[in-house]
Amino acid sequence: MVEAVNGSSLDIPYGVSDWDMSGFQSALSTTVKPHRVKDAIFSMEGKLLEMKELNYSEDNDGKPHGALAIIQATRFWVRADALNGTKDEVDLSKLRPLVQLGGISYARVRETFELPRPGLQAELDDESRGLRPFLDAKVEPQTGSDSSGLPHEETVELAKAVA
Fold it and tell me: Which of 94, 104, 122, 160 would be a feasible disulfide site paired with 82, CB 3.0-4.6 Å?
């Protein structure tokens, strides 16, 4: 299937069907107008929220080299034979997901893991972490730096109050 997906990236003339070129069969979607790939183990329907063209190369002749699409999923499709024994998760060995890393590079995802996010109070209570001095320090933005990513003063004060 990956070869057909890659083949669908051909710069074909307007009016020529991607479906015909790829060999995929289409299936109707339920929440969006475009069809989905019928034989896919997993597929999503979604609504485009934002599209950003990426023009970061110096040799691009003014043309974007890629795009970032932010999509809100509206429906998921999973083939029954791709589910685990308890039918509550997709079996990665059957799904065999791919990731496009950029350009012509791909990777296969073979395992996942969960990493719980820490809570501020628990981290502060663990004195071996030594985080308290960081909350007590006054952070000044550097001249000419974009400080929009720094926490607001109210957030810092709230964190100090929790400490």
Answer: 94
